[in-house]
């Protein structure tokens, strides 16, 4: 272990305090404007090295390596920096290695000042990413998110960023996989289990089961759906359900990924009938479509993705929530990025996003700017000391304005101006909350706590200045930059962990550009490279 720790210390020394070769130094090979640009302290490459690479705590990644695995043959800071560069410019893996080997600015950004300084090999880079992924999957610890928080915390302290006011927004991102029907999902996971079986395990299968499974491997499920009626597909799924039920029982000792996925699909798509009310052929029943949950498997190739319908948008993928500070005159930085499956609502992001921002900034949050999608009665007690500015309220405004005061509930008809004093009504058996009612000429109307709260929020929103409400809008530009390199709003990766790493790298890059522009505007007196977040992607291209 001593030798391992010694290697890590050597990596830090080599990446953060590089030794210049007078004959091989890139700086000494350049002249004129090229040398001026290369040595410019405000250049993106020098700021990248200062604000990201040099702030990386390599000790954090020691958990990925032990005496049996050994330390990587490259600096951890360089590997993390390469991942940030890749997402910052939207490069492919091939472009990343080409730029890092032949682009002097990219090499300088990573601390490779000499021509003969070697770039980590592809195998070292991919092995590092794999270990990051496996550690997050098995240990539940996101080292990349911790690195982002640590780097951002250092930047906030250095530039004195005020984190007492924040704003946030979310974005649905499609999965990098094709859309599959229920039949295709069932078919593919069943075939995947069969292909994972050894010859010895296949001997447990009956001749009939072997014949059926072999036929499935030769079938193209998309063509089967095209040629069949809905009733025929439903009947076929019912038959496959019984086959899956038998296979799961037969291979209970199988604990590989294929078995786990098939078991998940079976419980999501089927239910086991009561033995008293069914025959052997009817022991497994196909669930009705309305019983299928949003977090059910959407693709065998991306098991983490989920389904979400938002207004007229349907997404099979992920939901990304971004939080940033609000300073009218100072520097604004992203303080938190949360990635979950698409079915997770914006309401569920508010509490963890506020807590994450407070932890990174080490400051209390006084004011939060969000849209109506984050609104929930659960947040009233949670955010009692925080002023939450909603820029809208979901749903149309009702006809009646409700105001609860010491004298009771006053109901005002916004059309006629008529005012009613409501009286307490009998509580609903399934609820402990009070409700009120009034009698109109047409009917008796009831009002619950949710309607009273919505009316209060609408009055509160109407009393706020437009300038204050509009402060949330700029976060939409940040969201635009986050997904700038995506095509058709679809991710380049599969799996929740990879989505988190991508979003974290993009956030590091956006913060870097803001710091560069802030330094140019405040300390140099020169023109900023870009005045608006919408221009971030064009920086350093």
Structure characteristics:
alpha+beta, 6-stranded mixed β-sheet, 4 domains, 21 helices, disordered C terminus, 45% helix, flat, 541 residues
Structural class: alpha+beta
Provide a count of the helices: 21
How widely separated are the two ends?
43 Å
> Average pLDDT value?
86
Q: Report the helical percentage.
A: 40-55%
> Which stretches of 5+ consecutive residues score pLDDT under 50?
1-16, 526-541
Rg, Cα atoms, Å: 29 Å
Strand percentage: 5-15%
Count of all domains: 4
State the shape. Answer: flat
Instruction: Report the biggest beta sheet as strand number plus sense, adding barrel if it closes.
Output: 6 strands, mixed
Annotation, overall tally of beta strands: 14
What would your notes on this structure say?
- With 541 residues, this protein is of the alpha+beta class.
- The radius of gyration is 29 Å and the shape is flat.
- The strands form 4 sheets. Strands 1, 4, 5, 6, 7 and 8 form a 6-stranded mixed sheet that branches.
- The protein starts with a helix and ends in a 17-residue tail after the last helix.
- It contains 21 helices and 14 strands.
- It folds into 4 domains: 140 residues, no CATH class; 110 residues, no CATH class; 102 residues; 67 residues, no CATH class.
């Amino acid at each position: 272990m001593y030798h391992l720790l010694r290697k890590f210390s050597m990596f830090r020394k080599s990446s953060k305090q590089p030794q210049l070769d007078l004959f091989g130094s890139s700086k000494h090979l350049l002249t004129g404007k090229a040398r001026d640009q290369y040595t410019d302290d405000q250049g993106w490459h020098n700021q990248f090295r200062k604000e990201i690479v040099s702030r990386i705590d390599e000790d954090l990644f020691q958990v990925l390596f032990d005496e049996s695995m050994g330390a990587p043959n490259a600096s951890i800071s360089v590997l993390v920096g390469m991942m940030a560069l890749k997402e910052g410019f939207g490069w492919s893996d091939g472009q990343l290695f080409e730029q890092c080997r032949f682009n002097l600015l990219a090499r300088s950004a990573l601390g490779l000042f000499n021509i003969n300084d070697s770039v980590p090999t592809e195998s070292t880079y991919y092995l590092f990413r794999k270990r990051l992924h496996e550690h997050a999957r098995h240990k539940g610890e996101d080292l990349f998110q911790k690195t982002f928080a640590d780097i951002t915390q250092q930047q906030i302290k250095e530039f004195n960023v005020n984190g007492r006011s924040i704003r946030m927004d979310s974005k649905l991102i499609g999965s990098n996989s094709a859309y599959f029907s229920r039949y295709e999902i069932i078919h593919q996971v069943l075939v995947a289990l069969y292909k994972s079986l050894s010859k010895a395990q296949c001997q447990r299968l009956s001749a009939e089961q072997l014949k059926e499974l072999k036929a499935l491997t030769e079938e193209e499920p998309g063509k089967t759906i095209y040629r069949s009626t809905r009733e025929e597909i439903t009947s076929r799924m019912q038959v496959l359900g019984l086959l899956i039920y038998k296979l799961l029982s037969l291979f209970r000792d199988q604990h590989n990924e294929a078995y786990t996925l098939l078991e998940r699909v079976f419980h999501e798509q089927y239910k086991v009938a009561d033995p008293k009310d069914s025959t052997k052929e009817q022991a497994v029943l196909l669930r009705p479509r309305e019983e299928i949950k949003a977090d059910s498997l959407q693709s065998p190739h991306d098991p983490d993705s989920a389904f979400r319908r938002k207004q007229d948008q349907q997404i099979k993928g992920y939901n990304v929530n971004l939080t940033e500070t609000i300073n009218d005159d100072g520097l604004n930085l992203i303080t938190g990025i949360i990635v979950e499956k698409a079915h997770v609502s914006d309401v569920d992001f508010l509490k963890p996003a506020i807590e994450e921002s407070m932890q990174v900034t080490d400051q209390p949050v006084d004011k939060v700017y969000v849209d109506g999608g984050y609104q929930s009665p659960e947040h009233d007690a949670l955010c009692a000391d925080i002023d939450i500015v909603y820029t809208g309220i979901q749903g149309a405004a009702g006809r009646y304005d409700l105001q609860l005061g010491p004298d009771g509930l006053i109901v005002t008809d916004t059309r006629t101006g008529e005012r009613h004093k409501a009286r307490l009504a009998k509580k609903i058996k399934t609820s402990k909350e009070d409700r009120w009612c009034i009698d109109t000429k047409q009917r008796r109307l009831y009002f619950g706590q949710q309607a009273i709260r919505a009316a209060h929020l609408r009055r509160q929103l109407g009393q706020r200045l437009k300038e204050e409400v509009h402060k949330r809008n700029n976060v939409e530009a940040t969201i635009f930059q986050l997904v700038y390199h995506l095509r058709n709003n679809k991710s380049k990766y599969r799996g929740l962990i990879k989505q988190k790493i991508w979003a974290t790298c993009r956030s590091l890059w956006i913060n870097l550009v803001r710091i560069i522009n802030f330094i140019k505007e405040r300390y140099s007196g020169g023109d900023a490279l870009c005045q608006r977040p919408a221009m971030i992607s064009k920086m350093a291209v």
